[in-house]
Amino acid sequence: MAESTTYEPIILRNVGVADSWEIDVALAHGDYQALPKALAEFQPDQLIDLVKNSGLRGRGGAGAPAGMKWGFVPKGKREKYLLVNADESEPGTFSNRAILENDPHELVEGIVISAYALQVPTTIVYCRGEFALGHRRLASAVKQAYERGYVGKNVLGSGFDTEIILFRGAGAYICGEETALMESLEGNRPMPRPRPPFPASYGVYGMPTNVQNVETLCNIPMLVSRGVEWYTSIGTAPRNTGPKVYCVSGHVREPGNKELPLNTTLRDLIYAHSGGMIDDRPVKAVIPGGASAAMLTGENLDFKMDFDTLASMGTMLGSGGVIIMNDRTCIPCAVRRIEEFYNHESCGKCTPCREGTMWMVKLLRRITRGDADSADIDQLERIGKTIGFGPPNITLCALGDAATSCVTSGIRLFREEFEYHAKIGRCMTERVLVAT
Amino acid sequence: MLSQETVEEIRAALTRYPRPRSAVLDALRAVQRQCGYCHPDGVKEAAEIMGLDANALQMLVTFYDLLYDQPVGEHVLMPCKNIACYLRGADHIIEYISTKLGIKPGETTADGQFTLEPMECLAACDLAPMMIADETYHGNLTEERVDEILAALATTSKRRDESIEGGGAHHG
Known about the structure:
By secondary structure, chain A is of the alpha/beta class. Chain A has helices at residues 2-6, 23-28, 34-41, 44-54, 66-71, 95-102, 104-118, 132-147, 178-185, 214-218, 220-232, 266-272, 307-312, 331-345, 351-369, 374-389, 399-424, and strands spanning 81-86, 122-127, 163-168, 209-213, 235-236, 240-241, 243-250, 256-261, 283-287, 296-297, 321-326. In chain A, the strands form three sheets. Chain A has a five-stranded mixed beta sheet, covered by helices on one side.
């Protein structure tokens, strides 16, 4: 694992630099070096090929190849949009907030290069409502970038015009879902749209739209500066390349954003990069990719935290939110807490998700109260499987599926704890509150 | 009921985006900033300015967590209750605030000073357990930290949402 110990952060390199969000500081620390190169040395299609060849996959959750998505955007001058999803809300995820607050110019640079590649005249950044500071810093960065000619008419004398508009949400997890995000942006109640049509042909305001995650866009400048060969040497080519910001939280000594090659093992993530476990307790369970990802036990920590490895294990890298739980964690209580979240955030449009999350919470509350039996656990599992793995397209968006991951994986891996809780009404494990 | 300032703010927002209707959340925030919450009469006036049905705005007020359909305290405390904070003692922090202020989650103190509104993940799990107080993130909460934060807030006046602007660009 030579790479994981020698890798120098790029995306988060300016975190901790004084006034890193001010344009002069950002310039002194490497921002806006790739943009002139992209404009001078690349035709738009060559940039799309560059991203395709890099193997870069979307960092927001689904892991779709970014270059392929770029290829879907219709060519030519017309009303079309780059839509940046900065509505980071997946429980356990906090990398976008770090970027917005510490290096907003890096995002602006990634946006402008991408806008040039896609030849879009307008980028809209949908910023999470709770991110007051991040929004303020990004707004200021955009203003500074306009003043210096990095955004606006005739970017750096290239003849390319592009604008960036900021939109601020008002607090709803569902808005991180791309079609709900577009509804929110259009001023409607944010409920997902059926697909097809997909955003690439019918997106925001009914116009072709490319939706990108903040961290994904922050990979673009380094890719332009350093090239495909360098980029694909990080991680595991061809399908799991580049750096990843892992957001490590829970019972580790040093939680935080850890920018590492995409082939970092879970063991290294915990013990080499997060200070190990608090009080040296064992790892009991891990949610590897935000609350929507199925949990794993702590028995095996020696696997790569990448898209394909985690998919082969029945879970996902998702948003990169790695939540670590020690042996004193009560799994039924943790699952109940996660399910209450999904029930609160279900937009209510699709019946299986709206009703299913409500019933799963009711059953979980009965189980954790000790007012249930094995049949209730079976019922809970059945509801989870119905929404999560039932007929395809049972719900319009992924929230329905996501809401079942913790329930079905929790019961599959820790059924005896659910049985104990249902009958006795107490945790099988002694949960100790961590004083930090 | 809306002040000239609020009306102008809403009108300015109408030109900020490719389509005027995209300004609804900015308009509702402007109403909330003036009234302390999305007062139904203010929402109605905002809808008139935007040429929309009041229900189209009202249904957004009830949907979004940061828009309030009833009065809240001068300071809104939003401790995170989601999994990463939960694993590091969020329940205890919420209970502590609740006991200290003598209110349940969702309630406002009798003096109108504080509202306790536990939230889902606020994207700051590295600071767990954490909360947002008004608009500021506070991390690694302990009972002592909570005491300090509440004491500091009790001496500050009306919170102001300073980041209501839409950003650097004005469309069109």
